[in-house]
Amino acid sequence: MEMLRTPDERFADLPGFPFEPHYVEVPSGDGGSLRIHYVDEGPVGANPVLLLHGEPSWSYLYRKMIPVLTAAGHRAVAPDFVGFGRSDKPVRREDYAYQRHVDWTRAFLEVLDLRNMTLVCQDWGGLIGLRLAAEHLDRFARIVAANTFLPTGDRSPGEAFLAWQRYSQETPEFHVGGIVKGGCVTDLPPEVVAAYDAPFPDDRYKAGARQFPTLVPISPDDPAAAPNRKAWEVLLRWDKPFLTAFSDSDRITRGGDRVLQAMIPGAKGQPHATIEGAGHFLQEDKGEELAAVVVDFIARSRGVPS
Fold first, then answer.
1. Is residue 287 a part of any domain in this protein?
2. 172-204: b (≥16 Cβ within 10 Å) or e
3. Could you tell me the CATH number of the domain that includes residue 174?
4. Measuring CA to CA, which residue among 100, 118, 54 is closest to residue 227?
5. Residue of 95, 272, 280, 285 with catalytic role
6. Within a domain: residue 306?
7. Rounded to whole angstroms, how far apart are CA atoms 106 and 117?
8. What is the pTM of this model?
């Protein structure tokens, strides 16, 4: 598998991101290995809060939340998916598949042996994280789902998503920082837009970002449809604490919180949050507020059997 690795100097002095890089090697799926980058802050012995980002961002998205979580005594672990951030980037789009993303991230959790986790997942963080939680119940204590869903292809994902999918494949220039900016309510300063662009020196590095939108199951016979249905069989019995924290201004996932609340037993009676004044990337718009919701949720649900 041919891959690229973004030069370290691209990540120097990014605004609001003082965290030391950490790396693990995971199997690539073709006999080789891939390097995954992650942020790891807070007490090493504390139970981890696993922060999974969406498309086309990276762990930089969680920079406002990490200090709030660590100040509350939690360990914040934020990996970059393969193809994003400081993680390795396979060159061929065909090397990316939904199942491979699940497998790569599963290997990451196993190398670090993360347990009793609180999953915080947004966008593709949910498509991968909810699968992993369903497949590895013993590693997860609770879930916070933010602007995400777990599609099976049995129903339309909505026109807003389909429009984004078409744009992602048809636009001549896939401007990552501009896409993140467009998914926010707040006006991002140029240096923050540049930080989201940092992992991608040129288009050769963007194969994973380009491919992600095509991997969302939108038909019942999609390769990921059956595994996601199997995950839903588990989630329909999930009685561990489950919280939704959706924003008020995200066209793509609007209404998804009500579906999760209605279908997942562990969501019953939880203090579900609506983050006001935030778009799709609510961690960027209202990161500190979302982190406070997570901290409160963990405190409320401690002692609940997991």
1. yes
2. eebbbbebbbebbbeebeeebbebbbbbbeeee
3. 3.40.50.1820
4. 100
5. 280
6. no
7. 13
8. 0.96
Number of structural domains, the chain?
A: 1
Give yes or no: 123 in active site: yes
* Distance, CA of 306 to CA of 300 (rounded, Å): 14
Is 249 contained in some domain? yes
* DSSP 3-state percent helix, strand, coil across the chain (nearest 5): 40, 15, 40
Q: Are 128 and 41 in contact (CB under 8 A)?
A: no
- SS3 for 116? coil
Question: The tokens of 171 are what?
Answer: 């636009």
Q: Identify the DSSP state of 17.
A: -
Q: Which of 88, 95, 103, 123 is catalytic?
A: 123
The radius of gyration of the chain from alpha carbons, rounded to an integer in Å, stands at: 18
Strands 33-41 and 75-79: antiparallel
Q: Which residues contact 110 (CB under 8 A, 6 or more apart)?
A: none
- Does 288 fall in a domain? yes
* Catalytic pick among 88, 250, 257, 285: 250
Element (H, E) at 103: helix 98-112
Strand extents, DSSP E, the chain: 3-4, 22-27, 33-41, 48-52, 75-79, 89-90, 117-122, 140-146, 242-247, 273-275
Residue-wise pLDDT tens digits, 48-102: 999 999 999 999 999 999 999 999 999 999 999 999 999 999 999 999 999 999 9
Range of the domain at 192: 3-301
State yes or no: is 250 an active-site residue.
Answer: yes
d(CA 48, CA 46): 6
